[in-house]
Q: What sequence folds into this?
């Protein structure tokens, strides 16, 4: 139903006059010009011109709504609700102040649903691409308890921490990728443009070249003749790998397990998974979500198949009546410190606070590990490039050195 509603709506550009006589213009989503005019009149605007916005030739022509956008609007909603602003007014104010037309349209649509008497959680569920089940369930619990402002504050904190953690993981993965890409580019340039110049010189020597030099020349000739084959194989391999991860759950799970074993990177990803687990459980449990349901949400937010499966096993054991710390210990995947803090939280009845502390500790450890990785990889990049460039230079100058010895 949500997809059908979304497909029927278009974006309309409008020009009008406010009740104070001020000229206004903007964009609004709707199913027809008549309905858009009716929406504007409800907002106290007299429309003078409304037209369907032309679609771009390539793509939608609008900015996409990112997870960062959702985190920002969640924090804005939390701040306004805590300040005593009504929900409808808060949504309208954020929509008016948004610089992203897509976010503005999304908020306008949600605002119309709320004005029509639907619960906010129900309106959000129509956009699962931007608001997942965890988000909507937390909002629903806030509506039921009458503490929507405090729930939004918790959800905003959760989204901000999740985005910060995601950014750190991307930063950690960027450096190894950068080393590989730079090494490939520099080596390719040398093989395609520099080595052939030396080959022309060697052809006039009339002497037998060293095996190392012959090997480099053979690689250079292959690159010149079949560079497109190497590029095509790389692109196809990347595409097939991405498709296999998307479509084959068994293959994707094996990749997730392998990634956790990579030196340094694996350690960072393990800490990040523990931080996500603790932060998700802390947020949902504090919002009044039952522990078993909270574990379901934590499994979905873990970001790795190994932790997802382990958390689902923990959920099964907790459902059977076992303490969560005992179930976590049986999973053989969580550090002892985390298990002990969870045990203290269960005994003292402050599990959400203890999990929040665990999340903070591990988020900081991820931050420190990423900074350490950056410092470690800077000399590594220089070393890798030095070996590659130095090896090629030695291969090219080796025949010249030998010729000098013969002449001497």
A:
């Amino acid at each position: 139903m949500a997809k059908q509603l979304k497909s029927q709506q278009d974006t309309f550009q409008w020009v009008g006059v406010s009740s104070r006589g001020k000229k206004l213009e903007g964009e609004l989503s709707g199913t027809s010009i008549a309905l858009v005019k009716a929406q504007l009149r409800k907002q106290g605007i007299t429309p003078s011109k409304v037209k369907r916005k032309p679609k771009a030739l390539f793509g939608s022509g609008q900015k996409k709504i990112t997870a960062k956008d959702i985190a920002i609007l969640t924090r804005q909603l939390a701040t306004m609700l805590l300040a005593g602003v009504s929900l409808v007014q808060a949504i309208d104010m954020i929509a008016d102040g948004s610089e992203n037309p897509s976010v503005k349209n999304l908020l306008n649509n949600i605002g119309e649903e709320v004005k029509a008497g639907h619960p906010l959680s129900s309106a959000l569920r129509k956009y699962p691409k931007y608001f997942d089940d965890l988000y909507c369930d937390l909002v629903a619990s806030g509506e039921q308890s009458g503490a929507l402002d405090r729930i939004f504050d918790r959800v905003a904190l959760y989204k901000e921490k999740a985005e910060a953690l995601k950014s750190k993981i991307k930063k950690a993965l960027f450096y190894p990728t950068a080393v590989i890409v730079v090494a490939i580019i520099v080596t390719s340039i040398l093989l395609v443009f520099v080595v052939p110049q030396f080959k022309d010189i060697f052809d006039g020597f009339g002497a037998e070249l060293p095996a190392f030099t012959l090997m480099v020349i053979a690689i250079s000739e292959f690159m010149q003749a079949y560079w497109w084959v190497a590029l095509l194989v790389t692109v196809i391999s990347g595409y097939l790998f991405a498709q296999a991860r998307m479509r084959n759950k068994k293959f994707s799970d094996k990749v997730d397990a392998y990634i956790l074993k990579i030196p340094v990177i694996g350690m960072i990803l393990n800490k990040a998974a523990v931080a996500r687990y603790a932060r998700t459980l802390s947020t949902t449990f504090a919002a009044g979500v039952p522990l078993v349901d909270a574990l379901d949400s934590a499994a979905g937010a873990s970001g790795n198949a190994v932790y997802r499966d382990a958390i689902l096993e923990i959920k099964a054991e907790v459902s059977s009546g076992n303490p969560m710390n005992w179930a976590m210990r049986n999973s053989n995947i969580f550090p002892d410190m985390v298990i002990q803090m969870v045990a203290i939280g269960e005994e003292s009845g402050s599990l959400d606070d203890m999990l929040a502390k665990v999340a903070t500790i591990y988020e900081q450890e991820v931050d420190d590990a990423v900074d350490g990785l950056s410092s470690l990889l800077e000399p590594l990049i220089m070393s890798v490039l030095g070996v590659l460039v130095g090896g090629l230079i030695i291969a090219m100058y080796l025949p010249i050195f030998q010729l000098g010895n013969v002449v001497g």
Remarks:
- Strands lie at 10-18, 23-30, 45-52.
- DSSP finds 16 helices and three strands in the chain.
- The two ends are 87 Å apart (CA to CA).
- Confidence is low (pLDDT under 50) at residues 1-8.
